[in-house]
C-alpha cells in the first residue's frame, strides 16, 4: 500500500502576517517551475477552458490558492464524514490548477495550468483513514475509480488525473476500470496516472498507470535524476519532478513531500495546457507531444522517454496539429503503457489501431502520493 503526501511544511495561522510569510515561502520553494520551463510555456497557454478531473480523496475548494478553480463532483467512496478528508486531493489539485493569491497572485502555490478548472471526484480515502477497509469491501467502493472515470468524461473533463495505485496485495487491474479507460479515450480524454512509489522495493506493476492508453508518470529529484522510490516499468511514459514538492493542504495550509503523485499531477497540468492550445488533438497526439518534449533517445524503464518539459510539449503539440491526417496516422499504431517496440502482454487483445487493452483483471484504489516527512 502506498502512502499519501503527508509531510507538513508549515501551517497557516490566523495571523495575517504569518499567513503571508508561509504563502511566500510556499511559492519560493516551487523549484519545479524552472526545469519544466513554465515561464515560456505560460506565454502560449495557461489551460483556459479545460476541465481537469482530479480523481482522488476530494478537493477542499476553500484553500485560497484554489479559489474559483474547483467544481465539486460526487463522493463515490460510499463513506460519510469529513475527518481526514481531502488532503491528498487538495495537494494534487493545487499542482494542476493552483492560482496563488495575494497581490499579483505572487503568493502560495501556482499550478501548471493555473487557468484550468478542477472537477473534484472523490474515489478513495486518505491513507490514514480507518474506514478504508470498509471501502474496499463494499461493492460500490471497489468500483469507485471506474465510475469516477466515466463521471469525469460525461461531465466534460478532457484530462483525468489519477494519483492512485493498487493496494492490499491486488495488482492485476480490473475489467471495469479497463473498460472505463477505453470509454474515456474514445471520448477524447487524456488520462494520466502516477507510476508508483515502491521502486526501491517490490517495484510492482501498478494500476491505473499500467492500463494501455494511460500516461504513466515517474518522479525525479532536484537534480532531475530518477527518485529511488519511483517505479521502474516498461509502461512508464515520462518522469517529472516528485521530490520536495510544495502543495496546498486542507483549507489554508501547505505540505512538502515526495511521490509520483505530484509528478503525475504536473503532467496532467501539461496535458491541460496542450488541450487548451490545441483542442483538436487526440489523446494519442497529446501523449506523443508530452513524450517528445522529454527529448530522450529511446525508452528506459526508469525514465520512460525522459524528463517532461512543458514549453517543448506545447511546441510538439503545435507541430502535430499542423500535420495532415495521413501524417498523423503514421505516428505509431501503438498506444499502450510503454515504448512502441515493447512486446504485447500475453493477455492483451487489439481492439483498434490505437488501443491494446488487457482483460480479466481486478484492482482496488489507494492514494499514491508521498513518502514525505511529517
TrEMBL record:
PROSITE patterns: SUBTILASE, SUBTILASE_ASP. Keywords: Hydrolase, Membrane, Protease, Serine protease, Signal, Transmembrane, Transmembrane helix. It comes from the Bacteria. One of its GO terms (molecular function) is peptidase activity. The chain crosses the membrane at residues 348-367. Residues 47-306 form the Peptidase S8/S53 domain. GO terms for biological process: proteolysis. InterPro entries: Peptidase_S8/S53_dom, Peptidase_S8/S53_dom_sf, Peptidase_S8_Asp-AS, Peptidase_S8_subtilisin-like, Peptidase_S8_subtilisin-rel. The keyword Hydrolase applies. Pfam families: Peptidase_S8. The active site is at residues 56, 88, 261. Residues 1-19 form the signal peptide. PANTHER family: CEREVISIN-RELATED, PEPTIDASE S8. Belongs to the peptidase S8 family. This is Type VII secretion-associated serine protease mycosin. It comes from Nonomuraea recticatena. The gene is mycP_4.
Amino acid at each position: 500500500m502506498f502512502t499519501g503526501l503527508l509531510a507538513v511544511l508549515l501551517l497557516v495561522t490566523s495571523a495575517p502576517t504569518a499567513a503571508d510569510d508561509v504563502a511566500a515561502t510556499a511559492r519560493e520553494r516551487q523549484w519545479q517551475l524552472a526545469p519544466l520551463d513554465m515561464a515560456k510555456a505560460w506565454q502560449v497557454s495557461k489551460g483556459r477552458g479545460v476541465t481537469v478531473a482530479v480523481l482522488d480523496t476530494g478537493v477542499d475548494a476553500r484553500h485560497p490558492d484554489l479559489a474559483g478553480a474547483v467544481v465539486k463532483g460526487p463522493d463515490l467512496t460510499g463513506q460519510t464524514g469529513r475527518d481526514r478528508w481531502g488532503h491528498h486531493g487538495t495537494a494534487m489539485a493545487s499542482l494542476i490548477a493552483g492560482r496563488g493569491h495575494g497581490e499579483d497572485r505572487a503568493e502560495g502555490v501556482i499550478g501548471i495550468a493555473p487557468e484550468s478548472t478542477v472537477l473534484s471526484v472523490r474515489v478513495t480515502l486518505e491513507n490514514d483513514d480507518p474506514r478504508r477497509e470498509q471501502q474496499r469491501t463494499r461493492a460500490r467502493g471497489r468500483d469507485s475509480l471506474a465510475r469516477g472515470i466515466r463521471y469525469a468524461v460525461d461531465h466534460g473533463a478532457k484530462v483525468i488525473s489519477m494519483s492512485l495505485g493498487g493496494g492490499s496485495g491486488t495488482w492485476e487491474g480490473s475489467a471495469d476500470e479497463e473498460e472505463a479507460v477505453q470509454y474515456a479515450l474514445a471520448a477524447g480524454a487524456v488520462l494520466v496516472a502516477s507510476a508508483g512509489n515502491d521502486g526501491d522495493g517490490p517495484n510492482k506493476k501498478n494500476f491505473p498507470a499500467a492500463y494501455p492508453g494511460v500516461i504513466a508518470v515517474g518522479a525525479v529529484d532536484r537534480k532531475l535524476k530518477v527518485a529511488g522510490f519511483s517505479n521502474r516499468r516498461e509502461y512508464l511514459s515520462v518522469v517529472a519532478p516528485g521530490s520536495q514538492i510544495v502543495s496546498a493542504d486542507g483549507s489554508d495550509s501547505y505540505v512538502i513531500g515526495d511521490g509520483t503523485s505530484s509528478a503525475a499531477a504536473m503532467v496532467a497540468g501539461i496535458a491541460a495546457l496542450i488541450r487548451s492550445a490545441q483542442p483538436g488533438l487526440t489523446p494519442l497526439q497529446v501523449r506523443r507531444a508530452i513524450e517528445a518534449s522529454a527529448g530522450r533517445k529511446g525508452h528506459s524503464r526508469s525514465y520512460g522517454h525522459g524528463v517532461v518539459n512543458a514549453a517543448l510539449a506545447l511546441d510538439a503539440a503545435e507541430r502535430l496539429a499542423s500535420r495532415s491526417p495521413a501524417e498523423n496516422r503514421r505516428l505509431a499504431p501503438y498506444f499502450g503503457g510503454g515504448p512502441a517496440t515493447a512486446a504485447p502482454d500475453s493477455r492483451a487483445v487489439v481492439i483498434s489501431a490505437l488501443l491494446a487493452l488487457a482483460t480479466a483483471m481486478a484492482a482496488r484504489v489507494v492514494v499514491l502520493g508521498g513518502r514525505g516527512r511529517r
